Amino acid sequence: MLQQPKNISSESANEIPSDVEAFLAHWQSISKVGQVPSLRNFLDAPPFKHQSEVAIVDVVSVTEMRFRLFGTGLSIMAGVDLTGTDVLSNFHPAARAKASRNAWTAIAHPCGYFVRRDLHHGAFDSKVIAVGLPLLHEQSGRVCLVTFSSVLDKSSNVSRGDASPLVRNVHLIRWIDIGAGTPG
Question: Facing residues of 57 across strands?
């Protein structure tokens, strides 16, 4: 179920909502292979209480990322199920490099991250705080990424009803040390 937006001012938009912290705790509770849970262990764990806001991304390279899973709550927010699609095509060109760099760093280091994403869909603008964390895909040996997103606010913006990509901007809040440190 898509959560109700939280009333958080733009000044405090970099604070991490409790549901995002709860997802991090959920990820930390899953048994790991080294510092990272396997995709199978993540999928076999009891589902997170807001599972519909979870996405799993196969990160093939810094420019190739596909949604393995795009939760139903996220699909409602985006207006379409993005499962199987190119992740980066959903980012405005100015935000694409930041999103790519965050995802690639999280799987290569490994570490997690908190970000704020500015979204635009139809007549609505939203701010979302998300957490991204690595998972090991056992069959391929590659690391993929699991994310959880929490809507902070949603506002109507009737003057800008263009068809640009969903994510307008990405702001890295901070890296999360999962045992291997964080990027310098």
Answer: 67, 145
Is the whole-model pTM more than 0.90?
Answer: no
pLDDT tens string 86-121: 999 999 998 999 999 999 999 999 999 999 999 887
Residues near 22 by Cβ (< 8 Å), separated by ≥ 6? Answer: 48, 49
With contact defined as beta carbons under 8 Å apart, do 144 and 58 qualify?
A: yes
Distance in angstroms (rounded) separating the CA atoms of residues 112 and 116: 14
Residues in the chain: 184
Tell me the DSSP string of 2-43: PPPPP---GGGTTSPPHHHHHHHHHHHTS-EETTEEBHHHHH
Smallest CA-to-CA distance from 47 within 77, 76, 73 is with 73
Q: In the predicted model, is pLDDT for residue 1 greater than 50?
A: no
DSSP of 90-157, one letter per residue? GB-HHHHHHHHHHHHHHHHTT-EEEEEEEEEETTEEEEEEEEEEEEE-TTT--EEEEEEEEEEEEEE-
At residue 6, the pLDDT reads 37
